[in-house]
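Encode chain A's predicted structure.
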Amino acid sequence: MMRVRLDELAKRLGADIAGDGTVEITGVGGIREAQPGQITFLANPKYEVYLSETRASAVILGGDHPEIGKPALLCANPYVAFLKVLKLFSADRAVVAPGVHATAIVGEGVALGQDVAVGPYAVIGDGARIGDAVVLMSGVHVGPRCRIGRGTFVYPNVVIREETEIGERVLIHAGAVIGDDGFGFAKDGKSYLKIPQVGNVVIEDDVEIGANTTVDRATTGTTRIGSGTRIDNLV
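Encoded structure for chain A:
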């Protein structure tokens, strides 16, 4: 179990301490659910009533908040500070050892960067380019001639179809489908003719795509998701 003293957290966050800085923090929790050993936060005044009831060992508060009778970190933006603490305590969950699993299928002419992790039963099509420190978890399908940038993390059972380009530090959650056909048909009398979808998809840097979300390829040209975009699940 990870243990961090409150004064050490204060240094990482650039926060001031009110109370005992030697308190050990072992996790994080919401203000109503937190348990001893955890740190919580208060950013919305409507939750102030729970300050006297929380079992958390410490609280992250706004810099001008009065004493609350327990250790606190005081900072300008308690919510952002709490997110940083969450990231600190969850960092080990996303660690995947580099290497290509024995059951993975890697096509011809594939270029794998350094420290790439390819999970069980993943498939990488011919001519794909996978950047450094990319993680492709179990069951991921990467089509021919795809490009995936450095530090991108792809959760299980994601499908990335041919010629899709994905930037750096992209996070794609389980079951997403990137680059499938758009819904294009032309009526010819009483029948409908499928319009070939010959475009592609470009996902720029620092994008997060939710679970079971689809991003269709363009009929011609490119479907482009701009840098820093966040897409929820089931979109």
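Helices lie at 6-13, 78-90.
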